[in-house]
Amino acid sequence: MALSDVDDLKEVDGFGDQEEDEDDRSGTRTLVTFRLDRQAFAVEVAHVREIVDVTDIAPLPGAPSGIIGMIDLRGETIAIFDLAAHLGLPDRRGPDSRIIIFSFGEDSAAVSLGVVAQQVLRVCEVAVDAVTPMPETTTDWRNADVQGLVMTEDGKAILLDSGHILRGGRDLPGEFDFG
Question: In this predicted structure, what is the pLDDT of residue 5?
């Protein structure tokens, strides 16, 4: 299913349902695939709240490394994380770019963060056992951010651990409580 707009996501059973464990549903994982530079990436939809058009990203003075700014989303301020830079890729925003909004936590304690994707490709389901490990390297390449590789309609995609990347492997502080 190609994504023409955010409404396409609402048609996918369980999209944005944070309480449902994707691995438990009949041996499949539901993923959102997107492109950064020329590489396809995937994240599980469990923490994806919504996908929006790119808007002006305002600077956020004093923000920690990796936060490129903030957007106003219907009155809510959302910090934007520089996923491309984190992964060592160039920022190649264009007319197909979108912001993927992730949400971690429950209800009023939830913290939302956004990342800019060069292009959102689709929502797809893959078998849990379809995820293959990343190849070993002889370098210090850190792959803690990566869960593995998965074959999608768009070719091989790197399955990212969005929780590890955006939370830095820890619980998030409250909204903009970066101290």
Answer: 41
| Domain spans in the chain, listed from the N-terminal domain onward | 7-167
pLDDT greater than 90 at residue 53 = yes
Give the DSSP letter string of 85-130.
HHTT------TT-EEEEEEESSGGG-EEEEEEESEEEEEEEEEGGG
User: Hunting for tokens 């490990």 — which residue is that?
Assistant: 133
Long-range contacts of 96-101 (CB under 8 A, 24+ apart): 96/120, 97/54, 98/34, 98/51, 98/52, 98/53, 98/54, 99/51, 99/52, 99/53, 99/54, 99/55, 99/71, 100/32, 100/34, 100/43, 100/48, 100/51, 101/48, 101/49, 101/50, 101/51, 101/52, 101/73
For domain 7-167, the CATH architecture is Beta Barrel (2.40)
In this prediction, residues 86-105 reach a mean pLDDT of 91
DSSP helix/strand/coil, 83: helix
Rama region for 161: left / alpha / beta (φ>0; ψ in -120 to 50; rest): beta
pLDDT over 60 at 158, yes or no: yes
Mean pLDDT across the chain, nearest whole number? 80
Q: What is the pLDDT of residues 120-131, one digit of tens each?
A: 999 999 998 889
